[in-house]
Design brief:
This protein is mainly beta. It has three helices and 25 strands. It has a five-stranded mixed beta sheet, with no helix packed on it. Strand 11 and strand 12 form a beta hairpin. The longest helix is centred in the N-terminal third of the chain and has 26 residues. The protein starts with a helix and ends with a strand.
């Protein structure tokens, strides 16, 4: 009898593991392939060889790139080189990427930048950083005359255990996504495998830190509407963009969810139209299990009128990895499109 019980329990456990594995493959879109959607006037950006995970563009056309992100188990084309922040002036006739100098005293050797955001008062650059795979938010002041970044502050907090992206709402104030509840790599994997939906959004200020939205599979990109009324959050493994109303006390209330057929990463906002530009991963399994003979593909979506009953979703660019692998962000400025990747190159296009 005891053996029958043991065999029964083993069978139940194996069935549960199999169901979770199948569910994970579906969340990763492991069987999806893309049809190419080309843009006619594009070229790879010189000097970006190992990823440009996030991009943020100022109203004057200065674009910041977060480059060189590394994670345990994630492919890297420059495993021994620390990350950095690059800048490109999109008003130049032939824009080129230049690395910004960072002030003395900041630990450049462990710099591992992820999501970025700017706040325009003086120009403050907020950078999600993973030094030695830990989690901090670095706040810099951009010194345009010197093309440099002055480090002002490092933010650490127990409510920021696995920070992915950030949107600044003040000189020391921001919303941030935690893509996992845990910081330990094994527990992160278990959380993803079991599909616990424990990821969240946190509001940070010098006087108050609080969870303002939760229940995400894996909260990823975050941004704010041009009128500052709404926060947009990408749930990458649920293939969703959440629209949340921002209140005067900085709490958030969910208004709607837009379901898509791809893994949505970073969100960029066109300030003139309010359109959302999304860097996407059509097949997440290829992204995390890297095969140079079958590389991860890229996809860029443009979402118009997201607050309407039927938003317009357009595939602006798609590539099977032959040109661009693992697109994570797409940002527009004055008819120019920049597409960044998790660990590959970056693309400059004229629309």
């Amino acid at each position: 009898m005891g053996r029958l019980v043991a065999v029964g329990l083993l069978g139940i456990a194996l069935a549960l593991l199999g169901e979770r594995l199948l569910a994970l493959r579906n969340r990763l879109k492991a069987s999806r392939e893309v049809e190419s959607v080309d843009l006619p006037h594009c070229h790879l950006i010189k000097g970006i060889e190992a990823g440009s995970e996030d991009i943020d563009i100022l109203p004057n056309g200065l674009a910041f790139f977060s480059v060189g992100l590394k994670f345990p188990g994630l492919h890297s084309f420059a495993p021994d080189k620390p990350g950095g922040i690059l800048m490109m002036d999109l008003k130049e006739e032939k824009p080129r990427a230049r690395e910004l100098r960072i002030s003395r005293g900041f630990d450049l050797a462990s710099f591992n930048p992820h999501g970025i955001s700017t706040f325009i008062d003086n120009v403050y650059l907020f950078v999600v950083n993973h030094p030695e795979f830990k989690n901090t938010v670095e706040i810099f002041k951009f010194e345009e005359a010197e093309n440099s970044l002055l480090h002002l502050k490092t933010v650490k907090h127990e409510l920021l255990p696995s920070v992915n992206d950030i949107t600044a709402v003040g000189p020391a104030h921001f919303y941030a996504t935690n893509d996992h509840y845990f910081s330990d790599p094994f527990l992160k994997y278990l959380e993803t495998y079991l599909n616990l939906h424990w990821a969240n959004v946190v509001y940070y200020s010098p006087n108050e830190v609080k969870v303002v939205a939760e229940g995400f599979d894996s909260a990823n990109g975050i941004n704010i509407s041009p009128d500052d009324k709404y926060i947009y959050v990408a749930d990458i493994l649920a293939h969703e963009i959440h629209v949340l109303e921002k209140h005067t006390n900085m709490n958030l209330t969910q208004l709607k969810v837009l379901e898509l057929d791809t893994l949505v990463d970073n969100l960029s906002i066109d300030p003139s139209s309010g359109d959302i530009w999304v860097g996407c991963h059509p097949n997440g399994q290829k992204l995390f299990v890297y095969d140079p003979n079958n590389p991860p593909s890229s996809e860029v979506l443009r979402i118009q009128n997201i607050l309407s009953e039927k938003p317009t979703v357009t595939t602006v660019y798609a590539n099977n990895g032959s040109v661009l692998q693992g697109s994570s962000v797409a940002s527009v400025y004055d008819g120019k499109l920049l597409i960044g990747t998790l660990y590959h190159r970056a693309l400059y296009c004229e629309l």
